[in-house]
Amino acid sequence: MNDAAARVEEALAAAEAWQPAINAFIRIEADAAREAARAPRPGPLSCIPLAHKDMYYRKGRVSACGSTLRRDWIAPVTATALARLDAAGAIDIGTLTMSEWAGGATGHNIHFGDTANPWNPAHVTGGSSSGSAAAVAAGIVVAALGSDTGGSIRVPASCCGIAGLKPTWGRVSRSGAMPRAWSLDCVGPLARDVATIAAIMAAIAGPDPRDPTAADVPVPDYLVAATADVTGMTIGIPAGWFYEALDGGIAALIEDAKAVFSRLGVHLIPVTLPDVARLLTLQGVVTMTEAATIHAAMMRDHPEAYAPGLFARQQTGLAIPAATYLEALRLRGPVTAAFCDAAFAGADAILVPALAEPVPRRDETDAERDVARYGPIQARMVRNTRPFNYTGLPALSVPCGFTANGLPAGFQLAGPPFAEAALIRLGAAYQRATDWHLRRPRLPQ
Amino acid sequence: MATLDAAAVKAVLDGIHGVAVTDARAAEIARDVTVLAQGVRAAAARLSFEDEPQAFRGVLAANARR
Questions:
Q1: Chain A residues in contact with B65 (beta carbon < 8 A)
Q2: What pLDDT digit, counting tens, does each position of B20-49 carry?
Q3: Theoretical Cys-Cys bridge with A148: which of A102, A153, A285, A435, CB 3.0 to 4.6 Å?
């Protein structure tokens, strides 16, 4: 057996072993993976088994997108991000569970079953990239693609104790990725360590003629950034919103993380941000209106095919006046400029908690059929991540310890537009000084 | 200030989009959309006449570190 075949067999065995406990996979594609491992696959990701959220299209393969409506839908194209990972030598071993239409933040799914947290299956993984986070945390694959419209990479990464990067809007092509809200959607990686995040970004970032919104901005060497010293860099610590309503245990872990950066020679300075709560209103208007527009025809013809909570949320989007939606989009430029001026005038990045509270249990957040509870539960999960979707800014979630319930917690590093390299530099340096990312959950017996 | 009401929401969802909605849910949506719209309206006070949605990509480029 060659090295590639051995890696694939190891990943397939882990996927099969974990699946009953965590439900990370929609499909394990063993035959296709074994076939791919037989051919030479040169490249920077040569023969590395990966798996991705079931919303990245591969021509001829089903992408269910977390919905029963697409249970048998065969993709007509291959996503640019998948094609670039293929070209880099990676081997795709299957498709990963996700929230219905990427619309939920907990990892529940009434159609395909909930994804469960590898650290404790009674707890949520976070969503919507639930299977991506669970598969990486369980050690089945070293990295997976997720997508992030309001926190769908960073929330599950934090809940599962791994790293996750939402790149700048436009940094990675969205071609061949299921849309949730075009103006906000970002394609990005989840991985145990930030150095692997850098390797995936090196493969997928950059302009794409198939996606006119993919930015034609030079791609720096992320792998070099992941090894660079951080002495003399500056992190801003914002007062207000991100540190309000913060659980005491998470607050202590964030203080520890700040202390690590100080020991690494990073300057910590206070910053004052403009009205962050308003960003949530603006992000909500854009997300709900665009998602409702995308789904209007299916909501009309197949209302029974949606979880009631998600359906109700999208109903709201259909009632938002066009002028309100366009005002929210017109505000995006000036609001983002003001945010950057306040946050990054003297800092390379800002540091904020990823979640404000410990990872909740699955039963206490199971609201897919409960219209009244659905919205408030989603809002709790993404209160600290959504501001960076509206502003389009890059944000990296990094694990920083465990709360009293035994579940992981994380912080976010957010930076100016296209500053992914700076975030990788800081996150990787933090991981060289800590071992949170090296800890692994045990396979439940 | 007058607010959106359930009848208006029902007319938009049922009548224009063809998406069924109960009276109770329409009332909830009316309240939620009113709050959202008022929030956006308050924020929009900072807009200038020429601000347009497409300018956002230019703002990202302009605020990138060289």
A1: 416, 418-419, 422
A2: 999 999 999 999 999 999 999 999 998 999
A3: A153
Q: Per CATH, which fold does A3-438 belong to? A: Amidase signature (AS) enzymes (3.90.1300)
What is the identity of the amino acid at A44? Answer: P
Q: Which of A41, A58, A51 is nearest to A97 (CA)?
A: A51
Q: What is the pLDDT of residues A156-208, one digit of tens each?
A: 999 999 999 999 999 999 999 999 999 999 999 999 999 999 999 999 999 99
Q: Would you call A173 a catalytic residue per the annotation?
A: no
First to last CA, chain A: 29
Q: Which of A396, A384, A423 is nearest to A247 (CA)?
A: A384
Active-site choice (A99, A128, A147, A175): A128
pLDDT at residue A184 in the model: 98
Q: Where are the domains of chain A?
A: 3-438
Tokens of A273: 């941000």
Task: Quote the CA–CA distance of A426 and A264 in Å, as a whole number.
Answer: 10
Please tell me the distance from the alpha carbon of residue A10 to that of residue A2, in angstroms, as a whole number: 12
Strands A163-166 and A186-191: antiparallel
ipTM for the whole complex: 0.97
Residue A53 annotated as catalytic = yes
Nearest CA in chain B to A343: B63
The shortest C-alpha distance from A204 to chain B (Å) reads 20
**Residue at A315: amino acid letter:** Q
**Cβ-proximal residues to B51 (8 Å cutoff; 6+ apart), any chain:** A330, A331, A333, A334
Strands (E), A9-90: 25-28, 49-53
Please tell me the distance in Å from A432's CA to the nearest CA on chain B: 25
3-state class (DSSP) for residue A145: strand
Of B36, B37, B43, the CB nearest to A331: B43
Contact between A44 and A88 (Cβ < 8 Å)? yes
Q: A144 has which bridge partners?
A: A190
Tokens for B28? 């909830």
Tokens representing residue A145 in the block: 């693609």
- The reply to whether A128 belongs to the active site is yes
Q: Which residue of B has its CA nearest to A340?
A: B63
Cβ contact B33–A316 (<8 Å): yes
